[in-house]
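chain below, 312 aa
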Amino acid sequence: MNTTTPDFPTQPPSIWGAWLRRNPIVLKELRGRMRGARAFVMLTIYVGLMSLFTVLLYMIYTASSTVTLSTTGSAIGQLIFGGVLAVELFLVCFIAPAFTAGAISGEREHQTYYLLRTTLLSAQRLVFGKLTSAMAYIVLLLFVAVPLQSLAFLMGGVTIAEVLLSVELLVVTAIGYGAVGIFFSTTTRRTLSASILTYVFALLITVVLPLAALVVLSLTSIWMFTASSQPVLEILIFLIFALLACTNPIATAILTEVVLQQHGTAFVFTQTFSNGLNIPLPSPWIVYTLVYGVGTLVLVLLSVRRVRQVDV
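prediction:
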Protein backbone atom coordinates (compact mmCIF):
# COMPACT_ATOMS: atom_id res chain seq x y z
CA MET A 1 0.00 0.00 0.00
CA ASN A 2 1.31 3.37 -0.91
CA THR A 3 1.24 5.52 2.26
CA THR A 4 3.09 8.49 0.89
CA THR A 5 1.16 11.73 0.83
CA PRO A 6 0.80 13.40 -2.54
CA ASP A 7 2.75 16.55 -3.20
CA PHE A 8 0.42 19.48 -3.59
CA PRO A 9 1.66 22.28 -5.80
CA THR A 10 2.54 25.34 -3.80
CA GLN A 11 1.55 28.71 -5.12
CA PRO A 12 4.53 30.99 -5.65
CA PRO A 13 4.49 34.10 -3.48
CA SER A 14 3.40 37.35 -5.04
CA ILE A 15 5.82 40.17 -5.73
CA TRP A 16 4.51 42.07 -2.71
CA GLY A 17 4.79 39.00 -0.46
CA ALA A 18 8.30 38.24 -1.68
CA TRP A 19 9.35 41.86 -1.03
CA LEU A 20 7.94 41.69 2.49
CA ARG A 21 9.89 38.52 3.20
CA ARG A 22 13.10 40.20 2.04
CA ASN A 23 12.55 43.12 4.41
CA PRO A 24 11.89 41.88 7.96
CA ILE A 25 11.51 45.45 9.24
CA VAL A 26 8.17 45.75 7.47
CA LEU A 27 6.87 42.49 8.95
CA LYS A 28 8.13 43.40 12.42
CA GLU A 29 6.56 46.86 12.40
CA LEU A 30 3.25 45.75 10.91
CA ARG A 31 2.88 42.83 13.30
CA GLY A 32 3.76 45.03 16.26
CA ARG A 33 1.32 47.75 15.19
CA MET A 34 -1.61 45.45 14.33
CA ARG A 35 -1.15 43.19 17.35
CA GLY A 36 -3.62 44.04 20.07
CA ALA A 37 -6.62 46.34 20.12
CA ARG A 38 -4.87 49.71 19.81
CA ALA A 39 -4.75 49.83 16.01
CA PHE A 40 -8.39 48.78 15.65
CA VAL A 41 -9.55 51.24 18.30
CA MET A 42 -7.78 54.02 16.43
CA LEU A 43 -9.46 52.94 13.19
CA THR A 44 -12.84 52.91 14.88
CA ILE A 45 -12.33 56.37 16.39
CA TYR A 46 -11.14 57.76 13.06
CA VAL A 47 -14.12 56.39 11.15
CA GLY A 48 -16.50 57.50 13.89
CA LEU A 49 -15.18 61.08 13.87
CA MET A 50 -15.31 61.30 10.07
CA SER A 51 -18.85 59.91 10.07
CA LEU A 52 -19.88 62.41 12.75
CA PHE A 53 -18.40 65.22 10.70
CA THR A 54 -20.33 64.04 7.64
CA VAL A 55 -23.59 63.96 9.58
CA LEU A 56 -22.91 67.46 10.94
CA LEU A 57 -22.33 68.76 7.43
CA TYR A 58 -25.60 67.23 6.28
CA MET A 59 -27.54 68.67 9.23
CA ILE A 60 -26.02 72.14 8.86
CA TYR A 61 -26.80 72.25 5.16
CA THR A 62 -30.36 71.02 5.48
CA ALA A 63 -31.03 73.46 8.35
CA SER A 64 -29.64 76.55 6.62
CA SER A 65 -30.54 75.95 2.97
CA THR A 66 -33.86 76.18 1.17
CA VAL A 67 -33.27 74.47 -2.13
CA THR A 68 -35.52 72.44 -4.34
CA LEU A 69 -35.68 68.68 -4.21
CA SER A 70 -34.04 68.41 -7.63
CA THR A 71 -30.87 70.15 -6.47
CA THR A 72 -30.63 69.00 -2.85
CA GLY A 73 -28.85 65.72 -3.53
CA SER A 74 -26.26 67.22 -5.83
CA ALA A 75 -25.48 70.12 -3.50
CA ILE A 76 -25.24 67.91 -0.41
CA GLY A 77 -23.04 65.44 -2.27
CA GLN A 78 -20.60 68.18 -3.26
CA LEU A 79 -20.60 69.59 0.28
CA ILE A 80 -19.93 66.24 1.92
CA PHE A 81 -17.25 65.33 -0.60
CA GLY A 82 -15.40 68.64 -0.26
CA GLY A 83 -15.69 68.72 3.52
CA VAL A 84 -14.50 65.15 4.05
CA LEU A 85 -11.61 65.59 1.61
CA ALA A 86 -10.47 68.86 3.21
CA VAL A 87 -10.53 67.36 6.71
CA GLU A 88 -8.70 64.22 5.56
CA LEU A 89 -6.01 66.23 3.79
CA PHE A 90 -5.49 68.40 6.85
CA LEU A 91 -5.38 65.43 9.23
CA VAL A 92 -3.04 63.34 7.11
CA CYS A 93 -0.48 66.17 7.17
CA PHE A 94 -0.19 65.64 10.94
CA ILE A 95 -1.06 61.95 11.30
CA ALA A 96 1.53 60.66 8.81
CA PRO A 97 4.52 62.32 10.56
CA ALA A 98 3.32 60.94 13.90
CA PHE A 99 4.00 57.40 12.63
CA THR A 100 7.42 58.18 11.12
CA ALA A 101 8.98 60.90 13.32
CA GLY A 102 10.08 58.28 15.86
CA ALA A 103 10.98 55.55 13.39
CA ILE A 104 14.77 55.90 13.73
CA SER A 105 15.10 58.13 16.78
CA GLY A 106 12.84 55.76 18.72
CA GLU A 107 15.24 52.90 18.03
CA ARG A 108 18.07 55.03 19.45
CA GLU A 109 16.07 55.91 22.56
CA HIS A 110 15.27 52.23 23.18
CA GLN A 111 18.94 51.38 22.55
CA THR A 112 18.05 48.97 19.78
CA TYR A 113 19.30 51.00 16.82
CA TYR A 114 22.86 49.71 16.83
CA LEU A 115 21.56 46.20 17.43
CA LEU A 116 19.61 46.55 14.18
CA ARG A 117 22.67 47.88 12.40
CA THR A 118 24.70 44.82 13.39
CA THR A 119 22.37 42.69 11.27
CA LEU A 120 22.61 42.24 7.51
CA LEU A 121 20.04 44.98 6.93
CA SER A 122 21.33 47.77 4.72
CA ALA A 123 20.54 51.42 5.29
CA GLN A 124 18.15 51.44 2.34
CA ARG A 125 16.16 48.47 3.64
CA LEU A 126 15.97 49.97 7.12
CA VAL A 127 14.66 53.34 5.93
CA PHE A 128 12.30 51.90 3.31
CA GLY A 129 11.05 49.29 5.78
CA LYS A 130 10.21 51.90 8.42
CA LEU A 131 8.54 54.17 5.86
CA THR A 132 6.57 51.35 4.19
CA SER A 133 5.24 49.94 7.46
CA ALA A 134 4.08 53.37 8.62
CA MET A 135 2.52 54.23 5.27
CA ALA A 136 0.67 50.91 5.14
CA TYR A 137 -1.29 51.83 8.24
CA ILE A 138 -1.85 55.42 7.06
CA VAL A 139 -3.21 54.16 3.73
CA LEU A 140 -5.52 51.86 5.70
CA LEU A 141 -6.82 54.90 7.60
CA LEU A 142 -7.40 56.73 4.34
CA PHE A 143 -9.21 53.89 2.63
CA VAL A 144 -11.62 53.26 5.50
CA ALA A 145 -13.00 56.78 4.85
CA VAL A 146 -13.50 56.15 1.12
CA PRO A 147 -17.09 54.91 1.69
CA LEU A 148 -17.93 58.38 3.04
CA GLN A 149 -16.72 59.90 -0.22
CA SER A 150 -18.60 57.21 -2.10
CA LEU A 151 -21.72 58.28 -0.22
CA ALA A 152 -21.27 61.75 -1.69
CA PHE A 153 -20.75 60.13 -5.08
CA LEU A 154 -24.02 58.22 -4.81
CA MET A 155 -25.92 61.36 -3.77
CA GLY A 156 -24.85 63.10 -6.96
CA GLY A 157 -22.79 66.13 -7.85
CA VAL A 158 -19.50 64.20 -7.68
CA THR A 159 -17.91 62.23 -10.51
CA ILE A 160 -15.77 59.12 -10.31
CA ALA A 161 -12.79 61.17 -11.53
CA GLU A 162 -13.07 63.43 -8.49
CA VAL A 163 -13.13 60.44 -6.15
CA LEU A 164 -10.07 58.87 -7.79
CA LEU A 165 -8.16 62.17 -7.74
CA SER A 166 -8.99 62.67 -4.08
CA VAL A 167 -7.57 59.23 -3.22
CA GLU A 168 -4.45 60.02 -5.25
CA LEU A 169 -3.93 63.33 -3.43
CA LEU A 170 -4.39 61.67 -0.04
CA VAL A 171 -1.87 58.90 -0.79
CA VAL A 172 0.73 61.31 -2.22
CA THR A 173 0.32 63.62 0.78
CA ALA A 174 0.68 60.75 3.25
CA ILE A 175 3.86 59.47 1.60
CA GLY A 176 5.34 62.98 1.34
CA TYR A 177 4.76 63.94 4.96
CA GLY A 178 5.83 60.48 6.07
CA ALA A 179 9.15 61.02 4.31
CA VAL A 180 9.50 64.33 6.17
CA GLY A 181 9.08 62.50 9.47
CA ILE A 182 11.65 59.87 8.48
CA PHE A 183 14.14 62.58 7.50
CA PHE A 184 13.91 64.45 10.80
CA SER A 185 13.98 61.15 12.66
CA THR A 186 17.38 60.38 11.15
CA THR A 187 18.81 63.86 11.82
CA THR A 188 17.92 64.00 15.53
CA ARG A 189 18.51 61.62 18.40
CA ARG A 190 15.26 62.32 20.25
CA THR A 191 11.75 61.57 19.08
CA LEU A 192 10.48 64.77 20.70
CA SER A 193 12.89 66.90 18.65
CA ALA A 194 12.02 65.04 15.46
CA SER A 195 8.29 65.46 16.12
CA ILE A 196 8.63 69.19 16.80
CA LEU A 197 10.63 69.79 13.63
CA THR A 198 8.22 67.70 11.57
CA TYR A 199 5.12 69.46 12.87
CA VAL A 200 6.72 72.87 12.38
CA PHE A 201 7.35 71.94 8.75
CA ALA A 202 3.77 70.68 8.38
CA LEU A 203 2.40 73.93 9.84
CA LEU A 204 4.55 75.99 7.49
CA ILE A 205 3.25 74.14 4.43
CA THR A 206 -0.40 73.76 5.41
CA VAL A 207 -1.08 77.02 7.29
CA VAL A 208 1.69 79.63 7.17
CA LEU A 209 2.51 79.41 3.46
CA PRO A 210 -1.13 79.76 2.26
CA LEU A 211 -1.72 82.71 4.61
CA ALA A 212 1.50 84.38 3.46
CA ALA A 213 0.53 83.83 -0.18
CA LEU A 214 -2.88 85.42 0.43
CA VAL A 215 -1.28 88.43 2.13
CA VAL A 216 1.21 88.89 -0.69
CA LEU A 217 -1.55 88.43 -3.26
CA SER A 218 -3.70 91.11 -1.62
CA LEU A 219 -0.78 93.52 -1.29
CA THR A 220 0.26 93.08 -4.92
CA SER A 221 -3.24 93.10 -6.41
CA ILE A 222 -2.77 96.60 -7.81
CA TRP A 223 0.61 95.68 -9.23
CA MET A 224 -0.87 92.56 -10.83
CA PHE A 225 -3.63 94.68 -12.38
CA THR A 226 -1.05 96.94 -13.99
CA ALA A 227 0.98 93.89 -15.03
CA SER A 228 -1.88 92.75 -17.25
CA SER A 229 -0.58 95.15 -19.90
CA GLN A 230 2.73 93.23 -19.89
CA PRO A 231 2.04 89.64 -21.00
CA VAL A 232 5.37 88.19 -19.82
CA LEU A 233 5.03 89.67 -16.34
CA GLU A 234 1.42 88.55 -16.03
CA ILE A 235 2.27 84.98 -17.03
CA LEU A 236 5.25 84.92 -14.66
CA ILE A 237 3.18 86.09 -11.69
CA PHE A 238 0.45 83.57 -12.50
CA LEU A 239 2.93 80.68 -12.72
CA ILE A 240 4.67 81.63 -9.46
CA PHE A 241 1.44 81.75 -7.46
CA ALA A 242 0.18 78.57 -9.16
CA LEU A 243 3.38 76.73 -8.23
CA LEU A 244 3.16 77.93 -4.61
CA ALA A 245 -0.46 76.80 -4.46
CA CYS A 246 0.53 73.36 -5.74
CA THR A 247 2.73 72.85 -2.66
CA ASN A 248 -0.32 72.90 -0.39
CA PRO A 249 -2.61 69.83 -0.46
CA ILE A 250 -5.88 71.65 0.27
CA ALA A 251 -5.15 74.43 -2.25
CA THR A 252 -4.25 71.80 -4.83
CA ALA A 253 -7.55 69.99 -4.26
CA ILE A 254 -9.50 73.24 -4.64
CA LEU A 255 -7.67 74.28 -7.81
CA THR A 256 -8.05 70.80 -9.30
CA GLU A 257 -11.80 70.98 -8.68
CA VAL A 258 -11.92 74.42 -10.33
CA VAL A 259 -10.13 73.05 -13.40
CA LEU A 260 -12.52 70.11 -13.55
CA GLN A 261 -15.58 72.35 -13.31
CA GLN A 262 -14.43 75.09 -15.70
CA HIS A 263 -12.41 73.15 -18.28
CA GLY A 264 -13.86 69.65 -17.95
CA THR A 265 -10.46 67.92 -17.88
CA ALA A 266 -8.26 66.34 -15.24
CA PHE A 267 -4.99 66.49 -17.13
CA VAL A 268 -4.14 69.46 -19.37
CA PHE A 269 -6.16 72.66 -19.67
CA THR A 270 -5.70 75.92 -21.57
CA GLN A 271 -5.31 79.12 -19.57
CA THR A 272 -6.33 82.34 -21.33
CA PHE A 273 -4.62 85.57 -20.28
CA SER A 274 -5.78 89.17 -20.69
CA ASN A 275 -3.96 89.68 -23.99
CA GLY A 276 -5.71 86.66 -25.55
CA LEU A 277 -2.69 84.37 -25.24
CA ASN A 278 -3.59 80.71 -24.60
CA ILE A 279 -1.06 78.53 -22.76
CA PRO A 280 -1.60 74.80 -22.08
CA LEU A 281 -0.91 73.93 -18.44
CA PRO A 282 -1.04 70.67 -16.48
CA SER A 283 -3.73 70.18 -13.87
CA PRO A 284 -2.67 71.21 -10.34
CA TRP A 285 -2.74 67.62 -9.04
CA ILE A 286 -0.11 66.64 -11.62
CA VAL A 287 2.24 69.42 -10.50
CA TYR A 288 1.56 68.54 -6.86
CA THR A 289 2.36 64.87 -7.47
CA LEU A 290 5.60 65.71 -9.26
CA VAL A 291 6.72 68.17 -6.58
CA TYR A 292 5.95 65.81 -3.71
CA GLY A 293 7.33 62.82 -5.59
CA VAL A 294 10.69 64.51 -6.15
CA GLY A 295 10.69 65.85 -2.59
CA THR A 296 9.94 62.41 -1.16
CA LEU A 297 12.74 60.83 -3.18
CA VAL A 298 15.23 63.47 -2.06
CA LEU A 299 14.25 63.15 1.61
CA VAL A 300 14.46 59.35 1.54
CA LEU A 301 17.89 59.47 -0.11
CA LEU A 302 19.08 62.01 2.47
CA SER A 303 17.73 59.77 5.24
CA VAL A 304 19.61 56.77 3.86
CA ARG A 305 22.77 58.85 3.60
CA ARG A 306 22.36 60.01 7.20
CA VAL A 307 21.97 56.44 8.44
CA ARG A 308 25.14 55.47 6.60
CA GLN A 309 27.06 58.40 8.07
CA VAL A 310 26.02 57.42 11.58
CA ASP A 311 27.32 53.92 10.95
CA VAL A 312 30.75 55.34 10.07
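Residues 5-9 have pLDDT under 50 and may be disordered. The longest strand covers residues 268-272.
thats it, cya
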